[in-house]
Amino acid sequence: MKEVMSCLTLPSPPGLFFRFDPRVFCNTCLIRRPLRSKHCSMCDRCVARFDHHCPWVGNCVGLRNHKHFLGYLVTLSAMVSFVFYGCYVVFRDGCRLSAAGEGSLMSTAREFSQCSPWVAFATLYGGLNAFWVGCLAVCQAYQIFWLAMTTNERMNSGRWAGRTDNFFITVIFECWCCL
Q: I need a labelling partner for 7 at 20 to 30 A (CA). Which of 24, 25, 122, 153 fits?
């Protein structure tokens, strides 16, 4: 109780009993904010160590579920690799390439799409998903293990003065994560 009263009785302008400090209390929830927290407008609650609001899971990613979100990304990447393996087995066993089709990538892709259009579509769709899910997983792992920052803190890091990083590695991963 003394801690709450000390926050409420911060120095205030003359004539006011106390000043509401937005660094300590959330303006929307009117509760004491956890460290590194942010109020999510979509969930309408304060989230401790707020990373981002994820539309895939329909929830905020923060302190208590960040490891589960990273596990979700790794599992999703593994699932896409199983889809690729399945497509490879279907093309290897079910499609026979003609002698004229060997050589160029476009002619081979055309023969595969004529042999099994849905499997060719699954391969293409899986490739696109593997690329951006893999980029997101690498970017999240980079932020967690290398920078020790959340996505929200990283996006707002330009507001903070005096922040230093290893420039070369930061530029490489910034370019990789923005793909």
A: 153
- SS3 at position 22: coil
> Is 60 designated active site?
no
Tally DSSP H helices, then E strands, for the chain.
Answer: 6, 4
For 61-109, the pLDDT digits (tens) are 988 898 899 899 989 989 998 998 999 888 888 887 665 546 677 887 8
Please give the Cα distance from 35 to 1 (Å, whole number).
18
The catalytic residue among 54, 95, 135, 177 is 54
Long-range CB contact pairs, 40-49, < 8 A, 24+ = 49/150
Region of residue 162 (phi > 0: left; psi between -120 and 50: alpha; otherwise: beta)? left
